[in-house]
Model the fold of this input.
Amino acid sequence: MEANLVLPYRSFSTASIRNRHKMNTYKYKKIPYPLCSILTKLPANNQNHNAETTTTSCSKNVYKDNWFDRLAINHLSQSIQATTGLRNNKSGYEGLAEAATMVYSNFNSRRQVNIVVDALQRAFPMPILSLMKMVLPQSKWAREYCAAFTTVFFAWLVGPCEVKESEFKGRKENTVVHIKKCRFLEETNCVGMCTNLCKMPSQLFIKDTLGMPVNMVPNFDDMSCEMIFGQDPPQPDTDPAFVQPCYKLCKLSNKHQRDCNSQVKRKDEEIS
Done:
């Protein structure tokens, strides 16, 4: 197995949410830059198997969004654009992916997470979320409710998903949402956008607004993902998602060049 490119990848660790009305920022402690590599040559004894996997991963799902899906997609897209001030003329999921791409291309890692969390707060009525937080204390029922709610109301964002059984403190609970093939990851085809614009902001937003810890575990081989409600995510410096190489056919391959990452690193250090 050979890799022809070794890359620094920016990530971050423990986050503490400050009073939004005072500072409107989320502060992250720094961690070192892990190394990533891009696979260029498959092992001889595994070429056929991997070729099939690659073909499967590259075949995009076709989504038939209904009126609710289109409304939700455009609403979130407009919320992100309003937060950044960067507009695009695309509609539907393409417009949402373009809005996310502009965030990833124009801001450093910490700002990316801040922007998406702020956009989520714009998109969802805070009084309703605050009420849900009050009536959903930590319990088996609350964890299972959050899992079921996600599969019903957020398939437009992540694609088809289902609730799976898991073990919580020695008991069986239906608290894991299995996303068969993440629509956002499939559309953006970028590991960095998955971790910075989906995984980290979603974990923070759900914990802050609902008081419910959730650990998102993406599988970058088949683009599936699991959302484990009731489980605190690991620190990014020990989270396998933050040491994954990006896809060789990443649409934002220029973001993974040495000079580009150096620029991002300098911007991070300037505001630290």
